[in-house]
Amino acid sequence: MQERSRQSFATEEETDMEAGSGADGIEKREYNVGEEEGLACCISGERSEKSRNGTDSSGRRAEDLPWVGATPSALGYRMPAEWEPHDGCWMGWPERPDNWRNNAAPAQAAFAAVAAAISQFEPVTVCASASQWSRAREMLPRHIRVLELSCNDSWFRDMGAMFVVKDNGGGEGGGGGGGGGGGVGTGKTRREIAGIDWNFNAWGGLYRDFSLDVLVAGKMLEVERILRFVNDMVLEGGSVHVDGEGTLITTEECLLNKNRNASMTREEIEGQLKAYLGVQKIIWLPRGLHGDVQTNGHVDNLACFARPGVVLLSWTDDVDDPQHAISVEALSVLSQSTDAKGRQLAVIKLHVPGPLHVTQDELQGLEAPTDDLDLSELFSADGRLAGSYVNFYVANGAIIAPSFGVPQDAAAEQVLKRAFPDRKVVMVPGREILLGGGNIHCITQQQPAACRQLVVHT
């Protein structure tokens, strides 16, 4: 059997060992079934080309596979908190000129800066199209892995695979958010990983062509040879946050929007989240951040867990700002909520920047959309941008957060330092990413530290 390349997602020692135990106490092991290397197996759902006829990538029928019919939760998987240890980070590479101004050159520089910052703390893989691979390779540090992987756009939080893990022995997962490697329990824990390939429809059909984006999650899992669960429900990674201990927060504005899953009830959506992400309690915030028109109010711009029982909330004291009513509304829900463990939630207010608005020069740098999209659909009526410091990435031992060149940057950095005292807070310019409709959390997707359970077919 040819050895699979593990480049950025394993240490040199792990690459040379079939099994071993890292400093975080997680035993890393690969499980091979059969005699010839195959692809990560689709074990539920019927959406993708490979699974539509009920077969896996080797041609075996789905009903012949041992896990068919079982959900990740039933098999013991859960979505870990973002502060739990990572094997690495996935990112895309921006290029579409109707979303990124000036042929995406400023955005590419911003993405490269984010990737470089994260790579100081964990391995990073950047996925670029064939036409952009050379440019991405030239702009990124050599220690960052660059893969040729075609996409319509570059929001890997939303289109990428969502990872779940299963802990076997050595105590429970979860843990606090302060430490650089906390959350894996004590003793030796063998953590297995799988990926969820949710359906994707470009934020409710914002863009007409998302034929490449819908394939990204499956491609990621095939590259890493990770077990793949398929779910036909539309779900973007930025629309949910979890604490790793059974609690999920989301917004009604997004998940209950009829442009996502029109035929599903709230209870049915909750059922899928519980079955596939291993959560027991879902906290619904009414609305997302003011100005977040492209995603219909993703929660990752409004609120996130800092650690179990503690939530960071985008805030403004200006009662005349439309964001104030949204934040007060969310605070009311959170302050009256308990998590899956019965803890009363504490809330840390993180003031929003600005208000920030798109300029005419920035608008003129965008090309006319190629698929009937009107530029007015990308921005709120007043040109308000959905600026938020909550939209950060949690790396191994660090917080990579956006800055906007405004006075609020310094205060936000101090709040993040207090919220994550054992992590280094690194601020990276985020306005160019914001102009595209999101920020650092939106363009990244963490891959949790775990062994890769290979599914190999003969």
Structure write-up:
By secondary structure, the chain is α/β, with parallel strands linked by helices. The protein has one domain (86-452): L-arginine/glycine Amidinotransferase, Chain A. It has helices spanning 12-15, 105-119, 133-139, 156-159, 202-205, 216-224, 252-255, 266-277, 322-335, 360-364, 408-419, 431-435; strands spanning 19-21, 26-29, 86-92, 124-128, 145-148, 162-168, 189-199, 227-234, 241-242, 247-251, 281-285, 303-307, 310-315, 346-351, 393-395, 398-403, 424-429, 444-448, 451-452. The strands form 5 sheets. Strands 1, 2, 6, 7, 8 and 19 form a 6-stranded mixed sheet that branches. It has a 4-stranded mixed sheet with strand order 5-4-3-18, covered by helices on one side. The radius of gyration is 21 Å and the shape is globular. Residues 1-41, 48-64 and 170-186 have low confidence and may be disordered. Pfam families: PAD_porph. InterPro entries: Agmatine_deiminase, Peptidyl-Arg-deiminase_porph. One of its GO terms (molecular function) is protein-arginine deiminase activity.
CA radius of gyration: 21 Å
Q: Report the sheet with the most strands, covering strand number, pairing sense and barrel closure.
A: 6 strands, mixed
Low-confidence parts lasting 5 or more residues at pLDDT below 50? 1-41, 48-64, 170-186
Could you say how many structural domains there are in total? 1
Question: What is the CATH class designation?
Answer: Alpha Beta
- Oligomer class: single chain
What fraction strand?
15-25%
- What best-fitting shape do the alpha-carbon axes yield? globular
Helix content: 10-25%
Summed over residues and divided by their number, the pLDDT gives a mean of: 84
Alpha-beta classification: alpha/beta
CATH topology, anyone? L-arginine/glycine Amidinotransferase, Chain A
CATH architecture: 5-stranded Propeller
